[in-house]
Amino acid sequence: MITDPVHRSTALCSVARRASLGRSLGLLRSFPLEQADPDVFYSGLAHDTVELVADLWECSGDRPAEPGVGRLPGLTVLDVGGGPGYFSDVYAAEGARYVSVEPDVGEMSAAGLDQAGSVRGSGMALPFRSDSVDVCISSNVAEHVPEPWSMAEEMCRVTRPGGLVVVSYTLWYGPFGGHEMGLTHYLGGDRARRMYERRHGHPPKNVYGQSLFEVGCAEGLAWARDTDAAELLAAFPRYHPRWAWWLVRVPGVREVLVSNLVLVLRAK
Fold first, then answer.
1. CA distance linking residue 247 with residue 236, whole number of Å
2. Which value, to the nearest 10 degrees, does the dihedral of the CA atoms of residues 123, 129, 133, 137 take?
3. DSSP 23-53
4. pTM to 2 decimals?
5. What is the C-alpha to C-alpha distance for residues 264 and 256, in angstroms, rounded to an integer?
6. Domains assigned to the chain
7. Which of 2-6, 234-238, 259-263 is the least confident region?
8. Which of 96, 114, 221, 232 sits CB 3.0–4.6 Å from 72 for a disulfide?
9. Which is nearest to 65 in space by CA: 76, 73, 75?
């Protein structure tokens, strides 16, 4: 069990071991390809995400994988904001039953992939009964909904007691907070949007105030520590090497340098 919710490498075991500089640089190189070459970007992110979930599952309750059946055998995984479907096959390869929920039909069909396991719905009002999934994850979604902690509470609601809830999101004041608007978001979200429109002749995919919102590190930690729906197990920067995880503990600095925060909780 992880007794220090911010920093305990022995409990995070393989999660920490996998957090190398090489992994960080590889992911960093793929970020600019999200719109230019989504197959490369999302395929790499899908594999990294499923490895993260499998590592956390094994570490969160002394649940080692069984040989030959994948690392998530028989588990129901709900992916909130699953997008165009790149994650399904990777989860299936680990033995999981994958279900995603996505509010945007255009996003669901953007890659032309089979979305048989997808449900249209809002993350803030998940169309699933309580205690119905083993793992609930949202990857880079909280910054795209107006009430991210309502979504997080919903994720806890649908996860069975003892199950795993993983909320990973991009921090507004980090270097990727503006998404395709680049670093102009430091000048303000509205101004960044106008600058993007003047430069490209069309609005950004992620429109500030409509589909992109300011979400910070401190507020995520505060929600995770205060919620009655789950127990906070760990919080760490998703894309950083292990030796930089200490940044989560430094107020102010963490808002800029953590970039993407992972909150790991056990549902009650």
1. 8
2. 10
3. HHHHHHHHTTHHHH-HHHHHHHHHHHHHHHH
4. 0.88
5. 21
6. 9-171+215-267 (3.40.50.150)
7. 2-6
8. 96
9. 73
